[in-house]
Amino acid sequence: MSDTVLLAIEDDIALLTLNRPHKLNALNYETIDQLLAHLDRIELLSDVRAVILTGAGERAFSAGGDIHEFAVSVDKGADAAVRDFVRRGQAMTSRLEAFRKPVIAAVNGIAFGGGCEITEAVHLAVASDRALFAKPEINLGMPPTFGGTQRLPRLAGRKRALELLLTGDPFSPAQALDMGLVNMVVPPETLIPAARRLAERIIRHSPLAIGSIITAVTRGLNMSIGEGLQVESEQFARMVPTCDLGEGLGAWKERRPPIYSGR
């Protein structure tokens, strides 16, 4: 098995790199499986507080699913295609979305199809001004399958999302910023440093509180406001007996910076 996803850890931040630059970092089954395996490992590493996800090379974040591999599954029929492709891709984006450590996409180039769906699913995203986004599945005679029909309308609004989904037309980083798909657009040479600075602004806070906020937001988006408020209450209740909340309150009273233990 080749390293289709690279992992490097530095200063409490894990850098995951989709590593198929010769294929524009297309998401074949091996790549998705390796990404999920790395997330499982990172979840258990207490010294890793945030994740940055990017693509190898200068051309692509990810051009989407590996069409040659996907076509083989399609030839086997609907059951095989759903099992091998759709469920695997949806498991990846759902895992990224619900991960209790912040995940920041550093979109360095093309983010088409599944690459765009990863950007939709992660918590935060920084894009190079040379990035390019698209929802091109319509050109293959199919809808998006990794969550794009659900997450993009929630981010961009129904009409803007449908225009992109139904035309397949590419859109710029500035458009992605305007519709809430990314948080900022920066020059390519500052992409990873900008993503790291964003991660550092987050991880100075309690890891337990960070996880609680991510969980409340992720779950609440798919609920009524009343149900979402209940999730918010539950996440707060989980924090009450923790050392982190006690430390945060004590530090505020004593006018000093808090030192969080993650307990």
Low-pLDDT stretches = none
Query: What's the CATH topology name of the largest domain?
Result: 2-enoyl-CoA Hydratase, Chain A, domain 1
Gap from first CA to last CA: 37 Å
Structural class: alpha/beta
Q: If you compute it from the alpha carbons, what radius of gyration comes out, rounded to the nearest whole angstrom?
A: 19 Å
The mean pLDDT is 96
Helix content: 40-55%
3D shape = globular
How many β-strand stretches?
Answer: 9
Number of domains: 2
Percentage of β-strand residues: 15-25%
Output the number of helix runs.
11
Most strands sheet: 6 strands, mixed
Topology as a string of helices (H) and strands (E): EEHEEHHEEHEEHHHEHHHH
Major sheet strand order? 1-2-3-5-7-9
Q: From the 3D coordinates, which CATH architecture of the largest domain would you assign? A: Alpha-Beta Complex
Q: For the record, what CATH class of the largest domain applies?
A: Alpha Beta
- Write out the CATH superfamily name of the largest domain: 2-enoyl-CoA Hydratase, Chain A, domain 1
Short description:
This protein has 263 residues and is of the alpha/beta class. It contains eleven helices and nine strands. The protein folds into two domains: 199 residues, 2-enoyl-CoA Hydratase, Chain A, domain 1, CATH 3.90.226; 48 residues, Lyase 2-enoyl-coa Hydratase, Chain  A, domain 2 (Orthogonal Bundle).
